[in-house]
Design a protein that fits this description.
Helix content: 25-40%
Radius of gyration: 21 Å
Family: Belongs to the PAPS reductase family. CysH subfamily.
Bound molecules: iron/sulfur cluster
Structural class: alpha/beta
CATH topology of the largest domain: Rossmann fold
Main location: cytoplasm
Subcellular location: Cytoplasm
Oligomer: single chain
Function: Catalyzes the formation of sulfite from adenosine 5'-phosphosulfate (APS) using thioredoxin as an electron donor.
Pathway: Sulfur metabolism; hydrogen sulfide biosynthesis; sulfite from sulfate
Shape: globular
Length: 321
């Protein structure tokens, strides 16, 4: 195995020797998820038929070589990013992690507003928030508007979101004077679908989420010290263990979850009492809303997230697990 060339930040050209000849490959050509974060580079146009016949060992070897050369972990996630490249950087040393754990414990019984105030005092102006405009996110935006309306808030605009979701950005601006910034993938939906021979959300939603959400979020996380997350512990098993404050290993910054201890009922009760804007689709049988092609309404008695990626094992887009 030989690394032939680095084709910009996101692509690498790999050569490997088979019994008959030398093949040239690049991660995009290999049909495994680990490689799915490499498209959009010029080399894509040099697709090699031989690269499609990689053996399992060859594929795995090419993946390992590419990851090592590009400083990616087993999931293809950059090993360094987020707060580690901030100015000044934050490193997850054992001492710092112990400090976060202590802070988390001391905030365990505080209100979401007190937790947000603590986060702003401690980390602004290096404190931000990503939102998908769900009820919990809208609740935090409402609280931030009272505590620190200057907090930068952004949304991952995959190009596949519901129109009703996008309209919430305007409603936030009107109600709170806060502008939620859109963060876009490198490729437009048209370019992405052209490159992949059509949409891939129905055939490979993991890769679609990786390209349209996770890659964008990794880039958006660079340079911040901390961000707010809208997760609640009672939403899923994955989320049940979320601390109030902890180190986000995936995105390499401090993650603060002010609503971790809240219930769905508490969230909706505040929305109703304060007339916080929310997605009208929630009133039409959509308890959890993601991109339009991957979200369906649910029937009475179905799980809250069963309308997401219906028909797939997938329950999370990869941002929180
Ligand atoms: S939710 Fe669906 S459309 Fe949106 S990025 Fe994931 S797979 Fe693609």
């Amino acid at each position: 195995m030989e690394i032939l060339d680095h084709l910009g930040q996101d692509c690498i050209l790999v050569a490997f020797q088979s019994r008959k000849s030398t093949h040239f490959s690049y991660p995009q050509a290999v049909p495994c998820f680990q490689f799915s974060h490499f498209p959009g580079q010029p080399i894509v146009s040099l697709d090699s038929p031989s690269s499609k016949s990689l053996s399992h060992e060859e594929s795995a070897g090419a993946a390992r070589a590419a990851r090592t050369a590009m400083k990616l972990d087993e999931q293809g996630i950059p090993l360094v990013g987020g707060a580690r490249v901030a100015d000044p950087p934050l490193e997850p040393t054992p001492e710092f992690l112990a400090e976060l754990s202590k802070e988390s414990e001391s905030l365990e019984n505080e209100t979401p507003q007190a937790i947000l105030k603590w986060a702003v005092d401690r980390y602004a102006p290096k404190f931000t928030m990503a939102t998908a405009f769900g009820p919990e996110g809208m609740t935090i935006i409402h609280m931030l508007a009272e505590i620190a309306p200057e907090t930068p808030v952004f949304n991952l605009e995959t190009g596949y979101q519901f129109e009703e979701t996008l309209q919430l950005r305007e409603r936030v601006r009107e109600r709170y004077g806060m502008t939620v910034e859109y963060k876009y993938p490198k490729l437009t939906v048209e370019e992405f679908e052209r490159e992949n021979g059509g949409p891939i959300y129905a055939t490979d939603p993991n890769r679609c989420c990786f390209e349209r959400k996770l890659r964008v979020l990794h880039e958006a996380a660079r340079g911040w010290h901390a961000w707010a997350s809208a997760i609640r512990r009672d939403q899923s098993e994955d989320r049940a263990k979320a601390p109030i404050v902890g180190w986000d290993r995936k995105f390499q910054l401090v993650k603060i979850s002010p609503l971790a201890n809240w219930t769905k009922q508490q969230v909706w009760s505040l929305i109703s009492k304060q007339e916080i804007p929310y997605n009208p689709l929630h009133d039409q049988g959509y308890p959890s809303i993601g991109c339009q092609p991957c979200t369906r309404s649910v029937m009475a008695g179905e799980d809250e997230r069963s309308g997401r990626w219906s028909g797939f094992q997938k329950t999370e887009c990869g941002l929180h697990n």
